[in-house]
Design a protein that fits this description.
2 copies of one chain form a homodimer.
Chain A lengths: L10 E2 L5 E3 L1 H25 L1 H5 L23 H18 L3 H17 L8 H6 L13 H19 L3 H16 L16 H12 L2 H13 L6 H8 L31 H18 L2 H17 L31 H14 L6 H15 L17 E2 L14 H10 L2 H4 E3 L3 E4 L5 E6 L5 E8 L6 E8 L3 E8 L8 E4 L2 E2 L2 H4 E2 L2 E8 L4 E5 L4 E6 L9 E6 L2 E6 H4 L6 E3 L7 E4 L7 E11 L8 E2 L4 E11 L11 E2 L2 E3 L3
Parallel strand pairs in A: 5-9, 18-24
Antiparallel strand pairs in A: 1-4, 2-6, 3-23, 4-5, 6-7, 7-8, 8-14, 9-13, 10-11, 10-14, 12-13, 15-16, 16-17, 16-24, 17-22, 17-23, 18-20, 19-20, 20-22
Helix pairs in contact in A: 1-3, 1-15, 3-6, 3-15, 6-7, 6-8, 8-9, 8-11, 9-11, 11-12, 11-13, 13-14
Amino acid sequence: MSEPSRGRQFRPLPVPNVKVSGFWGDRQEAVCDSTAETLLDRCVEAGMLDQIDVRKPSPGIVIPRHSGLVSTQMFWDSDLGKSIETIAYSLYRKPNPKLEARVDEIVDMYERLQAPDGYLNSWFQRIEPGRRWTNLRDTHELYCAGHLMEAAVAYYQATGKRKLLDIMCRYADHMIAVFGRRPGRLPGYCGHEEIELALVKLARVTGERKYLDLAKFFIDERGREPHFFTEEALRDGRDPEEFVFGTYEYNQSHMPVREQRKVVGHAVRAMYLYSGMADIATEYRDDTLTTALEALWRDLTDKQMYVTGGIGPAASNEGFTDYYDLPNESAYAETCASVGLVFWANRMLGRGPDRRYADVMEQALYNGALSGLSLDGRTFFYENPLESAGKHHRWKWHHCPCCPPNIARLVASIGAYMYGVADDEIAVHLYCESVAEATLGNGAKVKLAQETSYPWKGAIGIGVSLESPARFALSLRVPGWVKGASLTVNGEAIDLSAVTERGYARIERQWADGDRLQLHLPLAARAVWADPRVRQDAGRVAVLRGPLVYCAEAADNGPGLNSIVLTDGLEGARDKDLSGIPGAVAIEVPALRETAEGWGDGLYGESPPERREDRVVLVPYHLWDNRAPGEMLVWLRKENG
Amino acid sequence: MSEPSRGRQFRPLPVPNVKVSGFWGDRQEAVCDSTAETLLDRCVEAGMLDQIDVRKPSPGIVIPRHSGLVSTQMFWDSDLGKSIETIAYSLYRKPNPKLEARVDEIVDMYERLQAPDGYLNSWFQRIEPGRRWTNLRDTHELYCAGHLMEAAVAYYQATGKRKLLDIMCRYADHMIAVFGRRPGRLPGYCGHEEIELALVKLARVTGERKYLDLAKFFIDERGREPHFFTEEALRDGRDPEEFVFGTYEYNQSHMPVREQRKVVGHAVRAMYLYSGMADIATEYRDDTLTTALEALWRDLTDKQMYVTGGIGPAASNEGFTDYYDLPNESAYAETCASVGLVFWANRMLGRGPDRRYADVMEQALYNGALSGLSLDGRTFFYENPLESAGKHHRWKWHHCPCCPPNIARLVASIGAYMYGVADDEIAVHLYCESVAEATLGNGAKVKLAQETSYPWKGAIGIGVSLESPARFALSLRVPGWVKGASLTVNGEAIDLSAVTERGYARIERQWADGDRLQLHLPLAARAVWADPRVRQDAGRVAVLRGPLVYCAEAADNGPGLNSIVLTDGLEGARDKDLSGIPGAVAIEVPALRETAEGWGDGLYGESPPERREDRVVLVPYHLWDNRAPGEMLVWLRKENG
């Protein structure tokens, strides 16, 4: 084993550097052809442009404040930001002058809206002027800024247009003047984390370290005493005790972040915070943050994560509850939270390849996150339960429209999650038919072409193109769930056990143009049990194949999915085409089926229901509710251990 | 088999006619010694007396209107009414001059409050004068009246004092002047049923048929078109569409009651309506109501009732959802709803003994209702889930304090549920150590003394005392769950199959003083499966013994109750003393136990948890959370059918 990865710096490739086809290419097509424009249309229908356009009268309060202080209308800048970011990524893939023109118009509106001092927030400039920076705890002021920054970076990378980027740099410069520990500055941070990771993106694209420093300031201040949110409330004439979510755990400001070891509160907030912390840990090589992050990672993945990579079981706080409390039918498991987990996992790879992070990134990506977007890119899940009685369907929109653009921007930018690049190493975290262009820290320019129909099939060919031979390490993830993986380089078999470090097969050599790797990851269906402390999964198994969690749907199995009982292992399982979804693989498994036919009238009886032999068809969880509506079940009953 | 029971009239015995000891006697002691006074104390602490006492300034709106129109403060008369009713029953059992004096004072306050025209409602007289009879849909105006009527009847029967009874007769007379189909009258009814059954009680104690007629009017009007609640809203300047519960199913006014076949909406409302309908069906021999009630009964008990007799799974409407939707951990199953089911079942016996009704009455009474009251009578469940992760405990009080006095008045008046008396027949519906005095319609005066420690043991001796020999039928319920019941009369064995009609052993003969029956109901533990369409109970059994549903508690079994697996039948089960609760019977059953010990770190694994042999201790559901707090589980995992 090599040294611990601490101290190294791996950064993602810019989105335009990876041309994606295959599985993710199809999903990106749907985002380009449908979602990108849909998002903007829905934002316009909601009246968001009326709020930012200073040429129109202020719309006033359109959406009531549901908890006294907060209204989803306060976050409209973030919805526009994420939508612009999605459109930007879609433009990398498919030019769309009409859509680009619409974004340009919105950017012009923001330019007109921006205050002379750089401040920019449509709620506080148009609805509640005079209240800026008075309630960071509740009003998402910096959160909105963060999403506009991410949009600005993406739009600049997509189009080369700097206007929005310059606007957001001016705003960031204004923040640098407002926040700080010196007298007259605000020693504050946002109630909804986001600005931290956005400032890192802004710093990376502009090369300005001052934005990194501001991100680090927000992270360093969080949870310090005297507590900023308490002081702020008192200054603002509010009772600090009157906080609708009761505890500062809700926004992870209950203690300084470096002391945190338990994942608590609002799930999306937590993921965005940890993402920002991981970025700062990488950029500053700050292992006081890494120590906290590693403990938080174990806390989340060992005790609080659905098998789908869904997180945050409760609707009440949109977040975490007790260890091992993972209800399936009432799972909140917000799409945004799994998207956020992908963000965090990806950033944990900033200190070097480690399967622990990449496996969970893939798990959350293909299951809890991707389920949030319909195949056609037009409808969206907000909650992602693991069981449905048939009434849970994707929305056209949501009163809090955070999830649609979040999953859309993730899908549209998936190329950035596939690789990590350091001075002398490229790590392949995700597999998908694609071509990537990377420039290593040592200057080597490498082109990697993946040929694969992963995740449906496990054969992955990787072609290396180089202008001139170069020495570097190519690290390929061998997922933890694989049994019997194999690898050849230029036809020569590699002993994986000899070269695998932290779950990555690390091939360090002088690479030449035309070198070719062939990785095989067997994708046999496997049954998975939950820790017996998860009461909701007791006596049940989930079936997975590769990174995909499978589920039973009424569309294939009729109603009454809890009447299905698996009694043997999955030896009798076989792959099956999934009608209507080309290339997709379903799984058919022998099972027993309990029947209500001979049951009679009474609701309770002293004999068990009759059982007959049956075969159950399972489909990938992320594809559920794309055909006919109906019941769905991930955790299937399993008897005899 | 005799003729269908339709056309016959069985009425309960007045509460004072049954002296209860044994199982229910102990619970009544707790109500007399603790609950009765506790209820009144809590009503006073809540400020209810300030609202009814005209010598004090009006308290104004103390409790905010949580859904725009409704506040629990509007129901305070009902809380006082049910508390007075409970106290009245407690006075039958145990004189308590201090408590009686406190009630007298409240009655005096109501006397002073009553308007010259007879109207009486503390909210509309003291908080919102001028608004009376303007919003029957939401404001519980007649509901409050109903509970004060029930209190008046009980207090009169307990003390012989007529003052509250006279007050409520004046109020009922006022209603007769207000309601009706003639011009100038209101063709209305209450959004929360209750007045109907209360008027029947008032009619029975006063002998005034006009009160029955008014009850029948409210029932006949319900759900007719043009819809009263729609017309009323328009008259009141409200938009009828702005009904927070969305549908008139919520209060069972979606169609005329005689056309209703599906149990819908708010569970307590439904039970109170059906109770009133059953009373009117009995009093008027109105079988157009009976037909609807029988269909509603099947709908509820075959498709919508927990094994505990809990009903109404959802918190959102405090009521019914879909057929076979019976979630255990999130079960609302309000105490009041099971109490209401006892009321309804009892009234379905008005047309003659029928085990279908009495079995469910007993099931709801001993489980879903009784669980609402702690052994010491001091704390109360509002929701009665069938599974708890350990955070569900009885409250000292509740912001909507409907349940505490409801279960208390049921326990304190349980004698009235034990017997049904007709012209020439006495039916014994429930068994408990007790002495009852009944006068039959034919004039015979009968005293029945039950000697039994039921429900812990199944031997029931019944002694008959008569002033002079008399011919009548004595009908003893043989519960549907019994296997191998036996009966002797004066030592002579009776062939139960020959004399059993609708589940009652009907012994019709010339009875003489000193006659003695001995009934034996074997109480072996039995496993019960749910209809396989109840997805939440799939692969699970409930264990019952006699009428009692059993559950596992952490107090006996440690945490992780879903790691318990039953694999065989209950042949290995044995009764066991329940430490700390004299007389009570626990059950010990061999089981397998899954253990987290060898599980390791990951949340998901590819091997099942290890299992070891274990014995699980089950305790009566109604007794749970009376010892140490912790997990609870009714439906235990069961493998192999």
